[in-house]
Specification:
- Keywords: Membrane, Transmembrane, Transmembrane helix.
- By secondary structure, this protein is mostly helical.
- The chain is built from 7 helices and 5 strands.
- It folds into 2 domains: 53 residues, no CATH class; 196 residues, Helix Hairpins (Orthogonal Bundle).
- The strands form 2 sheets. It has a 3-stranded antiparallel sheet with strand order 3-2-5, with no helix packed on it.
- Strand 2 and strand 3 form a beta hairpin.
- Helix 3 packs antiparallel against helix 5, helix 3 packs across helix 6 and helix 3 runs antiparallel to helix 7.
- The protein is elongated.
Length: 261
């Protein structure tokens, strides 16, 4: 307390005083209660703290008129440049994204068509395998029927092969017609999808099927080429606007400088 205040004074307030009030526009700054406009002696004595009287002055910054004009011009100029550069960067990024998306959209249908063609090829292989099995089963059934007729002729005196064996006769039920009809429908569907795929196929997909590596290389260069073309088209316009903006700001600054000189 002695280091901060330098001098200490005893409490000279009257016994009936309830509040210690500072001078006009003054405040008490206490070690525990902080900033307060008035102070109770009873609380002050019980807390054993120390307080000093201060005057609070707001922070005031003085700027000449020339400084404000220059600050306003610089701020206006920075805002324009920032918006222009942001728009330019956003436009370039958007163009790059659009070009990349275009190349991806061009390649995606060809990949889906290739996947569909691969599925149709697998179905066609299965159809051929089932067709071969159906033909083998039909030939086997014909051989069995021929053997049955031959055995019936051999055991004709005994009443046939079934009577000779003493068992019930077994008969063959041919259901290969259903298999043939199902295979015919599958084959018809494959041919129809193949014709539709060939009818929908454009020049780019035809080119991709003939030379996939060349099409991939060209599609990878489409994005950068589109960006370069757009820069060549819109670049001079943006540059002229930027030059006009800077020239107008420079003229305003020169007029203000000549006025205040």
């Amino acid at each position: 307390r002695r280091v901060i205040c330098g001098t200490e004074y005893e409490n000279t307030t009257s016994p009936g005083a309830k509040w210690a009030i500072t001078a006009e526009d003054g405040w008490w700054v206490c070690s525990k209660n902080g900033l307060t406009p008035c102070l109770s002696p009873a609380v002050f004595q019980s807390n054993k703290e120390y307080c000093i009287q201060v005057m609070i002055v707001p922070r005031i910054l003085y700027h000449p008129a020339e400084t404000m004009f220059v600050y306003w011009e610089m701020r206006h100029q920075r805002t324009k440049r920032e918006v222009l550069s942001s728009l330019t960067i956003a436009m370039i990024l958007g163009i790059a994204g659009v070009s990349t998306g275009v190349s991806a959209l061009v390649i995606q249908p060809s990949q889906l068509a290739a996947l569909r063609a691969a599925v149709d090829e697998d179905i066609e292989r299965l159809e051929q395998s089932i067709s071969y099995l159906e033909k083998s089963l039909s030939s086997l059934s014909e051989v069995v029927l021929q053997n049955r007729r031959g055995l019936d002729l051999v055991f004709l005196q005994q009443g046939g092969v079934c009577a000779a064996l003493g068992e019930e006769c077994c008969f063959y039920a041919d259901h290969t017609g259903i298999v043939k009809d199902s295979l015919a429908k599958v084959r018809e569907g494959l041919e129809r999808r193949k014709r539709e795929r060939e009818a929908r196929q454009g020049w780019f997909e035809d080119w991709y099927n003939r030379s996939p590596w060349l099409t991939t290389m060209i599609s990878s260069f489409v994005g950068p080429l589109v960006v370069i073309l757009l820069i060549l088209i819109f670049g001079p316009i943006i540059l002229n606007k930027l030059v006009q903006l800077l020239r107008g700001d420079y003229v305003k600054i020169m007029i203000l400088r000549q006025r205040y000189e």
